Amino acid sequence: MTEAALRLPRVTVATIVVRGNELLFVEEESPQGLVLNQPAGHLEPGESLLDAAARETLEESAWSVRLTHLVGIYQWRAPGGRDYVRVGFVAEPLSHDPVRELDDGIRRALWLTPAQMRAERDRLRSPMVERLVDDWLGGSRFPLAMARTVTA
């Protein structure tokens, strides 16, 4: 990876999907082994942040969702030096497609309480996973209109 490529932050989205007292997570393959993450992924060219969050949630978990709020925006430098900017949303589940194939590298989707997530802290994909949950639990909720797509 070139030095210039390391300087460019990767823009990602993540979604907390809430069902009762449980949150939707995915178990995914990574260089560190199997890790837990919210349904999350990279913003694609020309895609809005809202569309990216709904798409990634469907592709990684087979759940269609309705985004309700923006929770926060997070910046993190991974141990290898790559910077990430994560835009975190909260959503309610609408429907599940149990026969839908999940994205490559996603082993399964699972529902965990925040306490169960904390018990698996060593397996979280990054510190942004827990921070997003903590901020949501702390009441961080912003209107979706804060994540605007500006066109000419």
Task: Walk me through this protein's architecture.
- By secondary structure, this protein is an alpha+beta fold.
- It has a single domain (3-146), classed as Alpha-Beta Complex (Nucleoside Triphosphate Pyrophosphohydrolase).
- The protein contains four helices and seven strands, in the order αββββαβββαα.
- The chain has helices at residues 3-7, 49-61, 114-119, 127-137; strands at residues 10-19, 22-30, 33-37, 40-42, 63-77, 83-96, 106-112.
- Strands 1, 2, 3, 4, 5, 6 and 7 form a seven-stranded mixed sheet that branches.
- The longest helix has 13 residues, at 49-61.
- The protein is globular, with a radius of gyration of 15 Å.
Task: List descriptors.
about 150 residues, alpha+beta, Nucleoside Triphosphate Pyrophosphohydrolase, seven-stranded mixed sheet, globular
Strand content: 35-45%
* Whole-number tally of structural domains: 1
Stated plainly, the CATH topology is called Nucleoside Triphosphate Pyrophosphohydrolase
- The total count of strands amounts to 7
User: What is the molecular shape?
Assistant: globular
Global structural class: alpha+beta
Average of per-residue pLDDT values: 95
Any guess at the CATH architecture? Alpha-Beta Complex
- The topology string of helices and strands comes to HEEEEHEEEHH
Unreliable segments of 5+ consecutive residues: none
CATH class: Alpha Beta
The CATH H-level superfamily is Nucleoside Triphosphate Pyrophosphohydrolase
Major sheet size, sense and barrel closure: 7 strands, mixed
- Number of DSSP helical runs: 4
Q: Taking Cα atoms only, what radius of gyration do you get, to the nearest Å?
A: 15 Å
Helical amount: 10-25%
End-to-end Cα distance: 34 Å
